[in-house]
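Structure in, sequence out. Go:
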């Protein structure tokens, strides 16, 4: 049997040649995303943001976390919107250039994990 599978993006994919039985459902493992969110929170705490910017940054990270944890399937579009909002705010504050990898790394990882919905965020980040 030959599989010709095009692009797949989103949640859980099971490509099998025979029978597959799943008991108890399937859940996406968000551990790596949770780690990136934790690193992002720590990096943001070290940034010289105004109180208004810091509040907006925390709200965006909270929204990304809620989107990642949205039931059995993450709400990638919602997470991507919050990630874009956060990235734009940090870029305008000058934090992306100043913080370097400690801030850009988790942002890039989350953009990659969120998939095509957040592909444009990766392009906003410095290399």
């Amino acid at each position: 049997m030959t599989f010709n599978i095009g692009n797949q993006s989103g949640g859980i994919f099971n490509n099998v040649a025979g029978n597959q039985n799943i008991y108890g459902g399937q859940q996406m493992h968000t551990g790596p995303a949770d780690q990136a969110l934790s690193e992002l929170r720590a990096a943001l705490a070290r940034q010289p943001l105004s109180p208004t910017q810091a509040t907006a940054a925390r709200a965006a990270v909270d929204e990304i976390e809620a989107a990642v944890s949205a039931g059995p399937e993450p709400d990638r579009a919602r997470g991507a919107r919050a990630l874009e909002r956060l990235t734009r705010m940090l870029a305008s504050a000058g934090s992306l250039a100043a913080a370097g990898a400690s801030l850009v790394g988790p942002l890039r990882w989350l953009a990659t994990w969120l998939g095509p919905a957040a592909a444009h965020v990766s392009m906003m980040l410095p290399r």
